[in-house]
Automatic annotation (TrEMBL):
PANTHER family: PROTEIN THEM6 (PTHR12475:SF4), PTHR12475
Signal peptide: none
Protein name: Thioesterase
Top-level taxonomic group: Bacteria
Database matches in InterPro entries: HotDog_dom_sf, THEM6_lcsJ_thioesterase
Length: 194
């Protein structure tokens, strides 16, 4: 189930966190609830992705991207992600989600979501690639154009080694996904029948 209650909280409180400036981190605090856990009694892998959505939405709201997108017929869209888990988040434990826009190249934005335990240790990191799609012109916007439209005067830094490797891996997997022929027979999707 999606994190609708938490999404509502983020949407209703984003102004209290102030404007988001590129290069900063968004911080949202959570507690691991019974609806978040798997059979190991810790935050399940799908919930990490949903909470990272909230980190991005917080940034989009605070930066003014969502209101700008509505006016211009744009939409922020995920391209892909990579996650790594190094410590578990147990049931009832509090944790923070630190989200940031790390850098960008052409039409790709590289984001990072870091899940931090109460003792300051990192539990997980999710790296994302995303873009802003222009529905009217049927293309992804150059990120520099989006940044300019937001009124920010910021230059992207060069991607570091892990970010370059992530973008290369993402590009390769995307090409693989596009290389598969369409599946026309639904029987092929479930192993030939039920």
């Amino acid at each position: 189930m999606y994190v609708w209650g938490r999404l509502l909280r983020v949407a209703l409180t984003f102004k209290s966190r102030g404007a988001y400036r590129l290069g900063e981190e968004s911080r949202l605090s959570f507690r691991c609830l019974p609806t978040d856990i798997d059979s190991n009694i810790h935050l399940n892998n799908a919930r990490y992705m949903m909470l990272a959505d909230l980190g991005r939405i917080d940034i989009f709201l605070r930066a003014g991207l969502l209101s700008l997108s509505r006016r211009r017929g744009w939409a922020p869209m995920m391209g892909g992600l990579q996650s790594v888990y190094v410590r578990e988040i147990r049931l009832w434990k509090r944790f923070d989600l630190l989200s940031s826009i790390q850098t960008w190249e052409d039409t790709q934005v590289i984001g990072r979501h870091r899940f931090v335990l109460e003792n300051g240790e990192t539990a997980a990191i999710i790296m994302t690639t995303a873009g802003v799609y222009d529905f009217r012109n049927r293309r992804f916007q150059q990120v520099d154009e989006v940044v300019e439209a937001l009124g920010a005067d910021v230059e992207p830094r060069a991607p570091h080694g892990e970010e370059k490797a992530f973008m290369a891996s993402h590009d390769g997997l995307r090409k693989l996904a596009k290389s598969f022929p369409p599946v026309r027979d639904s029987a092929n999707l479930n192993g030939g029948g039920e």
